[in-house]
Design brief:
The structure is a single chain. The chain is mainly alpha-helical. It folds into two domains: 11-276, no CATH class; 280-311, no CATH class. It contains 14 helices and four strands. A four-stranded mixed sheet has the order 1-2-4-3, with helices on both faces. The longest helix is centred in the middle third of the chain and has 24 residues, at 168-191. It is globular. The two termini are 27 Å apart.
């Protein structure tokens, strides 16, 4: 398949509105700045990085070059210029995750390498690198450590324990799940194959390996389309709390439904058409927020002030 490198792709162009709204709510939560400061003070990212880099296998152009080539393509296709480090850990769940806001790393489960096709793996890697591209990592790392901070050092951190017991944890975890919807779009933009994205999600949803050759993605898509009337905004606080407490990610069928809705709007095809050019000179530069046409040399839009990519 001839995939396009999406030159100057801006994450604002494919952010999910649930992600945007949840982030706005999170940033308005009292105590967030204090929590960010504490996470930095205690060097949380350093400890996580030591744990993963000291336990797992690093993937490089010389070590598992086939896997690294897929990773490079995922980054290139969504215009992520600074590649994170990539590691493989022994875990036969089909999954991966990104950690670290200052020096991000991607950790890929061995099960994903064995059980996904190249195109499906490209979708998964695009999803994780999409988190990095969108700047999700600081709050993602905070969501990992927040439940433990209250228990371990809550009494020693000048009120951090009270932050954990407040609405901060609910807001943070809810945003994290909604950020997965933006990352799913990045994954699709990386692999540029809807069937591969849907079949990868289908495998993550629970298809036994012995039935991989009998999967019918059309039935799964139909299930996701039947789910389209689900309205997350209609859930009360209790419902949203239940939603985030049962999984580290939103429901797989819900994620697929949201991807289908997005592709049906035409926005996915428009991004491929706009950014899939042969060279930077062919790109028409517009502000991702107000859509004003730009000359290509600006760093910020002169109308709304949004940061934009330069040629």
């Amino acid at each position: 398949m001839d995939r396009k490198k999406l030159l100057l792709l801006n994450p604002v162009e494919y952010e999910h509105h649930f992600d945007q709204r949840a982030l706005k709510t999170l940033e308005g939560t009292p105590g967030l700045e204090k929590l960010v400061k504490k996470v930095h003070e205690y060097g949380i990212e350093r400890y996580y990085r030591l744990s993963y880099t000291g336990s797992n296998i690093k993937v490089t152009p010389e070590n598992f070059p086939d896997v690294y080539a897929i990773f490079e393509e995922a980054c290139s296709n969504i215009f992520l210029k600074d590649l994170p480090e990539l590691y493989i850990q022994w875990d036969y769940n089909i999954g991966a995750y990104a950690i670290g806001s200052q020096k991000p790393i991607i950790v890929l489960n061995s099960g994903a390498v064995d059980l996904l096709s190249k195109e499906e793996l490209l979708y998964l890697m695009g999803h994780e690198t999409g988190h990095v591209k969108s700047g999700h990592m600081l709050y993602h790392d905070m969501s990992l450590v927040l439940p433990y901070l209250g228990e371990i050092i809550g009494g020693l951190t000048l009120g951090l324990g009270s932050l954990v017991s407040s609405g901060m944890e609910i807001s943070l975890l809810y945003w994290r799940r909604m950020s997965e919807l933006t990352a799913d779009r990045a994954g699709l933009l990386a692999c540029q194959d809807k069937n591969a994205a849907f079949s990868a999600l289908m495998k993550m949803g629970g298809v036994p390996q012995t039935f991989f050759d009998k999967m019918n993605p059309n039935d799964f898509v139909k299930q996701a389309e039947d789910f389209k009337d689900f309205d997350i905004d209609s859930l009360d606080k209790v419902g949203k709390t239940i939603l985030i407490s049962m999984s580290t990610h939103p429901w797989t069928v819900f994620r697929t439904s949201e991807l289908i809705k997005w592709t049906n709007t035409g926005d996915y095809d428009a991004i491929i058409e706009k950014h899939g050019k042969e060279s930077l000179e062919e790109l028409e530069i517009t502000c991702p927020k107000c859509k004003r046409k730009l000359g290509g040399e600006e760093t910020f839009c002169g109308v709304c002030g949004s940061k934009v990519w330069k040629r």
